[in-house]
């Protein structure tokens, strides 16, 4: 069996040697769309994270029997084309739940604790010249007693809710589909959630219901001083709206996902004046060492199970 991994750079230093016990393996750090056909033409199994696999590519790869998506979302594979070619497609779910939950709070604490300011004020020597032992110029608030609104109460959203409750927050949520209403937390209409919550975190998928869910008009509804975190998918928050409103109002934004990744070089978020209220990480919430190990182990298991 020939196995081709198309974009191993995504996995960092994760041990990939387990694939070698399954057959002949080819590892590629990155693969462009122009390179894909040549690399998969003789493969029995391909492993992709973000490389797009089209129906045409499958048709020109006669030995291909299994496509392993090293992620949860399978939007980079033509699923109908795979079905027509009788090619199985397997993804991995749940591997990064704890990692994303942890990064949600990491982003929150960075923003509300003014970590950027306090780190710089010590390292630039200002604190060494202070007349007093403390610096209360940038006050922070406690999570206890605050309202935390969650958009998308799936597995990750529920995990965030549990930790937020442990901190003493009142957790509320909004279901973007309208179907997920049997929960332990109170459901609010989106407008009510935006207007009443001190912290809002997004853990929803990108679809027709969530595209530009938080546009400029929606963000205008948010409370002064609110924190808005997107750890779902880029495109749920309109990024041009964020770039505009972050310089108009006292709102704090934490974004781990963007509509285009890597972000484009002329992105308006790179030109905001109020940089202290904007924290962007390069789609890393899922990337704990443990999550990447689980991901690779699950991909290997998918190959083993398919082979029987």
Describe this entry's structure for a reader.
- With 308 residues, this protein is of the alpha/beta class.
- The protein has two domains: 2-93 and 289-307, Rossmann fold (3-Layer(aba) Sandwich), CATH 3.40.50.720; 97-280, Rossmann fold (3-Layer(aba) Sandwich), CATH 3.40.50.
- The protein is built from ten helices and twelve strands.
- The strands form two sheets. It has a seven-stranded parallel beta sheet, with helices on both faces. A five-stranded parallel beta sheet has the order 2-1-3-4-5.
- Strand 4, helix 3 and strand 5 form a beta-alpha-beta unit.
- Helix 4 (97-112) packs across helix 6.
- The longest helix is centred in the C-terminal third of the chain and has 19 residues, at 289-307.
- The protein starts with a strand and ends with a helix.
Strand content: 5-15%
Extended strand count = 12
Helical/strand content category = alpha/beta
The stretches of 5 or more residues where confidence is low (pLDDT under 50) are none
Under CATH, the homologous superfamily of the largest domain reads NAD(P)-binding Rossmann-like Domain
Question: What is the CA-based Rg, rounded?
Answer: 22 Å
> What is the overall number of helices?
10
| Helix fraction by DSSP (H/I, runs of at least 4) | 25-40%
| Backbone shape | globular
CATH class of the largest domain: Alpha Beta
What is the CATH architecture term of the largest domain?
3-Layer(aba) Sandwich
Give the H and E element order.
Answer: EEHEHEHEHHEHEEHEHEHEEH
N- to C-terminal distance: 13 Å
| Number of structural units classed as domains | 2
Strand order of the largest sheet: 8-7-6-9-10-11-12
């Amino acid at each position: 069996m020939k196995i081709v991994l198309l974009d191993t750079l995504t996995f960092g230093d994760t041990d990939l040697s387990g694939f070698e016990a399954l057959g002949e393996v080819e590892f590629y750090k990155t693969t462009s769309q122009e390179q894909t056909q040549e690399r998969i033409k003789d493969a029995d199994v391909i492993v992709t994270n973000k490389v797009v696999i089209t129906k045409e590519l499958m048709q020109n790869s006669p030995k291909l029997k299994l496509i392993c998506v090293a992620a949860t979302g399978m939007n980079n594979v033509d699923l109908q084309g795979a079905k027509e070619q009788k090619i199985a497609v397997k993804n991995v779910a749940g591997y990064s739940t704890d990692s994303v939950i942890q990064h949600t709070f990491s982003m929150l604490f960075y923003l509300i604790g003014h970590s950027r300011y306090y780190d710089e004020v010590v390292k630039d020597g200002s604190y060494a010249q202070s007349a007093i032992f403390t610096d209360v110029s940038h006050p922070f608030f406690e999570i206890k007693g605050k309202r935390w609104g969650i958009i998308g109460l799936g597995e990750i959203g529920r995990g965030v809710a549990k930790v937020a409750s442990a901190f003493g927050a009142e957790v509320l949520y909004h279901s973007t589909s309208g179907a997920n209403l049997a929960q332990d937390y109170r459901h609010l209409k989106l407008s009510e959630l935006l207007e009443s919550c001190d912290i809002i975190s997004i853990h929803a998928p990108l679809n027709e219901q969530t595209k530009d869910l938080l546009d400029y008009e929606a963000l205008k509804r948010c409370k002064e001083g609110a924190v808005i975190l997107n750890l779902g998918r880029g495109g749920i928050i309109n990024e041009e709206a964020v770039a505009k409103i972050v310089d108009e109002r006292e709102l704090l934004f934490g974004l781990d996902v963007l509509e285009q990744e890597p972000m484009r070089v002329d992105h308006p978020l790179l030109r905001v004046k109020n940089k202290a209220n904007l924290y962007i990480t390069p789609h890393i919430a899922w990337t704990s060492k443990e999550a990447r190990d689980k991901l690779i182990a699950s991909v290997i298991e998918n190959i083993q199970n398919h082979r029987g």
